[in-house]
Design brief:
globular, alpha/beta, 6 strands, four-stranded parallel β-sheet
Length: about 80
């Protein structure tokens, strides 16, 4: 199975979680800022992590998600987290 793990992290927490998930799945976690983060060819599973900031997601993550097409991945999972 071809798996891609992408993340947007300001504090490093989402990066750490993405790297742990990627390691378990035998994949590599890449920041959405990395030019290699664009999957190019479709993947079987795309996992994207990010956090909520001031009632929204980071603009870099929005741009990355907007760059994806319906053919980018057979399945996708996106995660955000709200903390008080």
């Amino acid at each position: 199975m071809n798996i891609a793990v992408r993340y947007c992290s300001r504090s490093g927490n989402t990066k750490a979680a993405a790297e742990a998930i990627a390691e378990e799945l035998g994949a590599k976690a890449l920041s959405v800022d990395d030019p290699a983060a664009l999957t190019g060819e479709p993947v079987d599973l795309l996992i994207v992590g990010g956090a909520l900031y001031a009632y929204g997601i980071d603009e870099r993550l929005k741009a990355y998600l907007s760059s994806l097409t319906k053919d980018s991945a057979k399945q996708a999972c996106r995660s955000t987290r709200w903390t008080l």
